[in-house]
Amino acid sequence: MNDETLETVRSVYCGEGEFAIVSNDENCTVFTVKLSACGAENITVSATFSVSPRDWSVLFQDAQFNRRSLTRLKNAFSAWRSAEHTVWDAFNWITENAASFLDRRDVVCRRPDVQDFAVLVQLDHVRDAKKYAKALQSICDSAGLTARLLFKPQGGPLLVGRARHQEGVKEFLKALKTRNVDVDSKGMPCKERLSSILFQGPVEDAEGLSIKDVFGVIYCRTLAEVHSEFSTLGLGSLYSKYVTPEQ
Q1: The domain that contains 63 carries what CATH number?
Q2: How far is CA 139 from CA 73, 74, 167, 236, in A?
Q3: Which one of 78, 146, 147, 238 has the fewest CB atoms closer than 10 angstroms to its CB?
Q4: Which of the listed residues 106, 133, 149 is the one where a domain comes to its end?
Q5: Least confident segment among 13-17, 98-102, 111-115, 196-200
Q6: What is the three-class DSSP state of 35?
Q7: In sequence order, what E strands does 89-145 have?
Q8: Residues 197, 87: one domain?
Q9: Domain range for residue 235?
Q10: 213 in helix, strand or coil?
Q11: Strands 146-151, 215-219: parallel, antiparallel or unpaired by DSSP?
């Protein structure tokens, strides 16, 4: 696995305990990733991937699945997988299908959502603001993210957003690292390489909030205006904890 792909995986699965590198050399990269199972509350799948230049394999190991459930999951995954499938395809398949292989006694049915998931990203710089904003809007629309691109009086821009499900945040982070969103010093399309994820995780739901626009680009003249935009999204606590005048 090349360094760029590995760094993208690390960026997307950057929550506590979500990702760990077991070993990494030119012949093989081994890492463990914890994936949420759609349709079941608090159910995750721990999968250890071994990725070589020509192939990859996965080992499922999770105490949340009993032996029969885990065997069914392994067999279904093996039947699905083909030579064309990538590690990202595997992540998606596991996330979307794992819950269906749980025995009923293992499953805690998902209750109506009482939390949203939020993400806060520090961008290093933006060369072509119009192109960047257009790309971000497309990514946010696809991921179901309500977000703001905030240009501040000093420091790099911030992207703050919220989604109804964790999968939306993961989809956004993956696209941010794998799609061309800006231009480089020569004017050529380029990916976002220097962003820092300040926060991703659950937040209180948006019930009662009146959010007019799904996506917006805001040029803030003061930090008070930055704070106001966070508050509009119901994320004022993230501003207080993660945003400093120097950022």
Answers
A1: 3.10.110.10
A2: 31, 32, 13, 23
A3: 78
A4: 106
A5: 111-115
A6: strand
A7: 115-122
A8: no
A9: 115-242
A10: coil
A11: parallel
State the alpha helices, DSSP H only, in 98-222: 129-143, 166-178
Give the tens place of pLDDT for each residue, 210-236. 676 789 999 999 999 999 999 999 999
Distances 120 to 3, 4, 62, 136, 195 between C-alpha atoms, Å = 24, 21, 30, 13, 10
Q: How far is CA 203 from each of CA 109, 147, 196, rounded to the nearest angstrom?
A: 20, 14, 19
Q: Report the distance separating Cα 229 and Cα 242, nearest Å.
A: 14
- Comparing C-alpha atoms, which of 116, 99, 117 is closest to residue 108? 99
Res 110: pLDDT: 47
Total count of residues recorded for the chain: 247
In contact, 138 and 103? CB cutoff 8 Å: no
**150 in Cβ contact with 226 (< 8 Å):** yes
Which residues, listed in sequence order, are joined to residue 122 by a DSSP beta bridge? 158, 196
What SS3 class is residue 9?
Answer: helix
- Point out the domain boundary residue: 106, 129, 149: 106
- Report the distance separating Cα 245 and Cα 247, nearest Å: 6
Question: 206: domain CATH number?
Answer: 3.30.70.100
pLDDT of residue 204: 81
The confidence score (pLDDT) of residue 38 equals: 77
Return d(Cα 194, Cα 121) in angstroms, integer.
10
Per-residue pLDDT tens digits for 103-156: 755 554 444 445 789 999 999 878 999 999 999 999 999 999 999 999 998 888
Identify whether 238 is part of a domain. Answer: yes
What is the Cα–Cα distance from 235 to 18, expressed in whole angstroms?
Answer: 23
